[in-house]
Design brief:
The structure holds 2 protein chains of 2 kinds. By secondary structure, chain A is α+β, with helices and mostly antiparallel strands. In chain A, 28% of the residues lie in helices and 22% in strands. In chain A, the strands form 2 sheets. A 4-stranded antiparallel sheet of chain A has the order 1-2-3-4. A 3-stranded antiparallel sheet of chain A has the order 5-6-7. In chain A, helix 1 crosses helix 3. The longest helix of chain A is centred in the first third of the chain and has 12 residues. Chain A starts with 7 loop residues before the first helix and ends with a helix. In chain B, the strands form 6 sheets. Chain B has a 7-stranded antiparallel sheet. In chain B, strands 16-17-22-19-20 form a 5-stranded antiparallel sheet, covered by helices on one side. Chain B has a 4-stranded mixed sheet with strand order 8-11-12-13, with no helix packed on it. Helix content of chain B is 35%, strand content 18%. Chain B folds into 4 domains: 255 residues, no CATH class; 203 residues, no CATH class; 55 residues, no CATH class; 42 residues, no CATH class. Chain B is built from 22 helices and 25 strands. By secondary structure, chain B is α+β, with helices and mostly antiparallel strands. In chain B, helix 9 packs across helix 10. Classes of the chains: A alpha+beta, B alpha+beta. Chains A and B meet through helix 1, helix 2, helix 3, strand 5 and strand 6 of A and helix 10, strand 8, strand 9, helix 13 and helix 16 of B.
Chain lengths: 188, 731
């Protein structure tokens, strides 16, 4: 075993949150990171979901980009599919907005330090399938939901991992979010 | 005949370095590192000799000044740069500030200083001008050229944060300024000495233009002396290793570091576009009305970042969507932005056993001209603009966190948020002696960030700001006696909540004690003016609760202390004491953003809440036993355990069945209280189309819509008419 080899069970304990701080620090102090971490990570993640689509990337606690036929979708571990990963998945979520001090106080219990309710609302984005809280933003009215990550998957797999994806295309690295809102506007 | 290698002028040498990088992608065109490869041990010795020389200069020079900011609070740095300006080695200290150094040297090159006033052995150059590289004018740089056999082989530099900059407010972290003329004493690159001696006239400037002339003169002498100490040490190294080795070695240090950083990004992250958003609120309305009516308004400032981690392993930041420059303290130039944001790069991918500016070849910025981070008005106020640039410090930490999370290196995920007020203060002692100073024990310090497998540490020091790690928070009492620390304590529930919460923030209470004839304070707040910096949590965690600064005037606390009573320890207790009558109080000033000047009297109380970070993950997924532990420690209250985390405690222990049931009920409530995103979009769109928003929000968009990229995205997302516009409203 190489000095920097990290067993699969250690990666699993990182994912599960059961790793000890002592062991985590050992990982931090590796002089060179274990190069195969990503594959072990994917393997652990894939083993934890009940569905069969291949995980290409984890983008949040519950959310994955998966390959499904000719599509690359955002999928929750509960099985809910948000659609094309090039569209900000928040537009496929359920949204709760807090606008009053009373409502804000429930999640910012130290009132003197709560967000500025005159200028901001608090947006909570839930998975429609399992109602997990996926993201929270303090935002003035009108702020576009933050598109947390649009990965350049083709470059990542081809150039950084050395294992190109079979369906490479420049189109995969395009933000398509506004196409969806355009569609909504047309349909209304 | 120029002063640089091969008879090049400094200006040509700088241009040549830029061309080489552009053409090859390697710093100074170094495709190979022969010195490193041929004898790594010798190279390491060479590098460490130079680092040690920087550290030794810092350790020695600080005793020259009487100024406690350098002597006790350790706010100083000594550095070594190549002739073209890149910093090759540095001491520890204010580690962000070294990013400014190349800009100052390149400014002298582009201004043809070689021709006039000349760059000769023994010359001393000083600069604190943000337009020419300083982060803000409290950060003063003193630079000395190092010549060997008539050739400029390096620069040595000293920098320190000074007590007072002679601005409209005293101290070095002003919160009220409308242009460069209210920023105080600003000096562009200036030949302040020759033959290794500072000019007498230069001292007179400090004495006449700042409130703490004696301190500032001593600080200048400290910086110059440290730079001279370093100059002499560097020449010893040149003689020992030879000029050719020295010249090549400095450049290899930089290129090697660049490769290490790129390698880390490629091996630990995922390329792509990453979103980020932060805000700040500036309140001038009512304060500027008579003196500066043009600045008598408030601003909501937007700090977005479209960050691309490129396929080449570099970071590209597009800041279109940042507000325009204006008549506030908050403008800053690229050097300040690079300086402060580098602090987020160090722990993310730029950590190193040595400090240098190779980072500048791994990051590039698109800063829209006319924006507050690229002001076109040469007299824009930049008094504390670097604090605003810190939005991008946290961008680096949050984006890197997401990129490493996606890659599987969860142990490297450190998503930090801004926190830490810093105070400027001045006064006149009872005997008539004027003074000015500051206090920054909370800056860059606070609760630790959560990781995807553990909570943030309860209280951590901040590496980039020495005072928060200097040992004694009371150190300021030795030099600013009117403000006595009563205590600090962890504030229950004051954290970014989530599956993994941030470290719990801390409150501190100080008593204003016999301030003499006058005491005036102001505070700059890091955490985004009640809007968050960043304004979001991660992976479902809640955003940070902000910093709080409070003054409670005309209290009876001195009587309580004399009577042997207890006293409040943090902001929450302080307000409770006032509300239930245990503490008598007159006026109470509470701020979640930069404060104006506040006059303080004997028996007033100054209090801070700081250090809360953002949360990671869904609160309802937090291990109930961790919540039980938090309640047991007094970090989370029982009502919050139940109401926010859905954890039912009985006799201090988790009732698992009741907890599961409550959490299930809370999930059902989530469905009832939320709507489909499409319905949310329709509702929010109506508000925007109807222009139903707070004046500051409307004014912010009115400004941002002038930028085509922002306007395109905004109108496209909300499907607004092409002619949609908002008018600036004063009111």
């Amino acid at each position: 075993m190489q000095d920097n080899a990290v067993p699969r069970e250690t990666v699993a304990s990182l994912v599960d949150g059961t790793i000890t701080w002592k062991r985590a620090k050992e990982l931090v102090r590796l002089p060179v990171k274990d190069a195969d971490r990503f594959w072990k990570y994917l393997d652990v993640l894939q083993s934890r979901v009940f569905w069969k689509e291949k995980i290409l990337l984890r983008v949040s606690e519950h959310l994955y980009i998966v390959a499904k036929g000719r599509e690359r979708l955002i999928k929750c571990d509960c099985g809910h599919e948000f659609g094309d990963y090039r569209v900000n998945w928040k537009l496929g979520s359920r949204v709760r907005v807090r606008r009053t001090r009373e409502d804000m106080k429930k999640v910012f219990p130290v009132e003197v330090a709560m967000p500025d309710v005159e200028r901001a609302e608090l947006r909570e984005y839930y998975c429609p399938g399992c109602l997990s809280l996926l993201s929270v933003e303090t935002a003035p009215v009108g702020q576009l939901p933050v598109f947390e990550v649009l990965p350049d998957l083709d470059t990542f797999y081809r150039d950084w991992l050395g294992k190109p994806l079979p369906d490479e295309s420049p189109d995969w690295f395009q933000d398509r979010t506004c196409e969806l809102t355009g569609q909504w506007a047309r349909e209304d | 005949m120029g002063i640089a290698f091969g008879g090049k002028t400094l200006k040509d040498a700088v241009a040549n370095a830029e061309t080489l990088f552009k053409e090859t992608g390697h710093i100074y065109g170094l495709r190979t590192l022969p010195l490193v490869e041929e004898d790594p041990a010798k190279f390491m010795k060479f590098q460490m000799r130079l680092v040690a020389a920087c550290v030794a200069a810092r350790s020695t020079a600080r005793y020259i000044t009487a100024n406690p900011m350098a002597l006790l609070m350790e706010e100083l740095q000594f550095m070594l740069a190549v002739p073209e300006g890149d910093l090759a080695a540095s001491s520890y200290g204010l580690i962000g500030h070294l990013q400014s150094a190349p800009f100052i040297i390149r400014a002298m090159a582009s201004l043809d200083f070689e021709e006039n006033p000349g760059i000769r052995p023994g010359d001393i150059f000083s600069c604190n001008d943000t337009r020419y590289g300083a982060p803000h004018n409290a950060d003063c740089f003193t630079t000395i050229p190092v010549f060997y056999d008539g050739e400029l082989v390096a620069w040595t530099m000293g920098m320190s944060h000074i007590s007072d900059v002679g601005a409209i407010q005293a101290g070095g972290l002003g919160t009220m300024s409308v242009d460069a003329f209210t920023d105080g004493f600003i000096y562009p690159p200036t030949k302040s000495g020759e033959d290794f001696r500072l000019h007498r006239w230069w001292e007179l400037h400090w004495e006449r233009r700042t409130r703490t002339g004696i301190f500032n003169v001593m600080d200048e002498k400290m910086r110059a002396t440290g730079a001279i100490i370093l100059h002499d040490k560097v020449l010893e190294v040149v003689k020992e290793f030879g000029a050719d080795y020295f010249r090549q070695g400095l450049k290899e240090m930089l290129e090697r570091e660049r490769r290490v950083m790129v390698g880390r990004i490629i091996s630990q992250m995922v390329p792509g576009k990453y979103g980020y958003q932060a805000y700040q609120v500036v309140q001038y309305k009512g304060i500027m009305k008579s003196l500066f009516p043009f600045a008598d308004r408030d601003w909501l400032l937007s700090y977005p970042c479209a960050t691309t981690i490129t396929g080449e392993g570099t970071f590209h930041m597009d800041l279109e969507g940042v507000c325009s420059e204006d008549t506030f303290y908050a403008n800053c130039y690229e050097p300040a932005l690079r300086m402060v944001s580098s602090i987020g790069c160090w722990p993310s991918f730029a950590y190193s056993s040595t400090l240098n500016t190779a980072l500048q070849y791994v990051t590039d910025w698109k800063l829209p001209p006319g924006s507050m981070f690229n002001p076109q008005n040469p007299h824009a106020a930049t008094l504390t603009g670097l604090m605003e640039g810190s939005a991008y410090l946290y961008m680096f930490m949050c984006v890197s966190a997401l990129a490493k999370f996606a890659r599987g290196y969860l142990e490297e995920v450190l998503p930090q948020a801004a926190s830490g007020p810093g105070q400027a203060m001045h006064g006149v002692f009872a005997d008539g002696t004027p003074w000015a100073g500051g206090d920054w024990p909370y800056v860059c310090a606070g609760g630790g960030p959560p990781q995807p497998f553990r909570d943030g540490a309860p209280w951590t020091f901040g590496g980039p700001n020495p005072q928060s790690d200097s040992g004694e928070i009371e150190v300021s009492e030795f030099v600013q006696p009117p403000i006595l620390y009563l205590g600090r304590s962890i504030i229950p529930n004051y954290c970014g909540h989530g599956k993994y919460r941030s470290g719990v923030g801390v409150g501190g209470v100080q008593l204003i004690l016999e301030p003499g004839q006058r005491l005036v304070m102001n505070s700059s707040i890091a955490s985004g003016g009640g809007m968050g910096m960043p304004s979001h949590g991660l992976a479902g965690g809640y955003p940070e609760p902000g910093d709080v600064v409070m003054w409670v005037h005309d209290t009876n606390l001195k009587e309580i202390v004399r009577g042997g009573g207890t006293y409040p320890r943090d902001i929450v207790e302080l307000l409770q004491w006032v509300n239930d009558g245990r503490l008598k109080a007159g006026k109470i000033d509470v701020y979640n953003r930069f404060t104006p000047s506040v006059e303080c009297g004997d028996g007033d109380i100054f209090a801070i809440g700081a250090g809360a970070q953002l949360g990671w993950g869904d609160v309802l997924e937090r291990d109930p036993l961790l919540v039980e532990q938090d309640v047991d420690r007094g970090w989370i209250t029982k009502d919050v355990a139940r109401g926010l985390y859905g954890v039912v405690l009985q006799g201090g222990k988790v009732n698992q069945a009741a907890t599961s049931q409550l959490r299930q009920t809370m999930k059902v409530q989530r469905k009832a209280e939320s709507v489909e995103a499409r319905d949310w979009w329709k509702e929010e769109r109506q508000l925007i189309a109807g222009k139903e928003m707070h004046t500051d929000v409307s004014n912010m968009y009115a400004d941002l819509l002038r930028y085509p990229g922002f306007a395109g995205r905004f109108k496209s997302f909300w499907q607004l008419d092409e002619d949609y516009a908002l008018q600036q409203i004063r009111g």
